[in-house]
Write a structure and sequence with these properties.
This protein is of the alpha/beta class. The protein contains 7 helices and 11 strands. The radius of gyration is 19 Å and the shape is globular.
């Protein structure tokens, strides 16, 4: 069985796969992580492999050590230990976050190409995959919570806001004006970018949404038809299966 791990800037998402079947999944906030918490999830689970996608290099090293101490399994790191089985036109592929390429690969295998993936987390990424399964590049934007935090920290009088669904279109006080501005503004940006990308791609495009905040965006961006919250973890499992097939 495979332990698939996606280390993001805010959370660690994990799943145990038997082939492509998900046996268990969970999430740990990066700030709350400990080896003890991980041990309660993976001990006595008959895991024989671990594969990690990460955008936080220093945390990757810690987790690899913890997995080895708990299970004697040497976890592999995508992009470092395992090459991603998808082509990209990125000028410097090493600069491209492994999570973005994992999502691109997963979407191209699970759904019909061409495909655009919108991932809404700490950062929002939009990536396009051609009908020929080539990653064409994309966009990186600040995530919803990051926008709210930035407005609070970079101004003298704007308050801290908790992310939640907006109530109506126009804000009727400062807090709702901030919240609505961030959510509706980000949604409009995403919809506009999707429209621009789509006009330059061949074929009928499939739109896939993922990430912790995607459901807030989907309500305002009806063109996003499919939500797959486990897209990255599924991609990690597919990459592991591809590695075993091509040994």
């Amino acid at each position: 069985m495979l332990l698939a791990v996606d280390i993001g800037n805010t959370n660690i998402s994990c799943a145990i796969f038997k082939g492509t079947c998900v046996l268990a999944s969970w999430e740990i906030a990066l700030k709350d992580y400990s080896r003890f918490i991980l041990s309660k999830k993976i001990l006595h689970k008959n895991i024989d492999a671990a594969l990690i996608a990460s955008v936080v290099p220093e945390f990757s090293r810690r987790l690899i050590k913890d997995i080895y101490k708990l299970s004697k399994i040497k976890a592999l790191l995508i992009a470092k230990d395992i090459r991603l089985p998808i082509k990209t036109v990125y000028h410097q592929p090493k600069e491209l976050g492994s999570d973005r390429l994992v999502n691109a690969y997963a979407a191209s295998k699970i759904y019909k190409t061409p495909v655009i993936i919108i991932s809404c987390g700490t950062a929002i990424t939009i990536d396009a995959v051609s009908i020929n399964n080539i990653h064409l590049g994309g966009f990186i934007m600040p995530g919803l919570k990051l926008c709210l935090t930035a407005l609070n920290l970079a101004t003298a009088q704007l308050p801290a806001i908790t992310l939640k669904p907006p109530n109506g279109l126009l804000g009727k006080d400062t807090k709702s004006s901030i919240l609505n501005g961030v959510i509706f503004g980000t949604s409009a940006s995403i919809s506009g970018l999707i429209k621009n990308i789509s006009s330059k791609m061949k074929g009928k495009i499939t739109l896939i949404g993922t990430g912790g905040d995607i459901r807030l965006i989907k309500k305002l961006s009806p063109e996003i038809k499919i939500i797959d919250p486990m897209l990255t973890l599924k991609g990690i499992a597919l990459i592991y299966a591809n590695k075993k097939t091509n040994r």
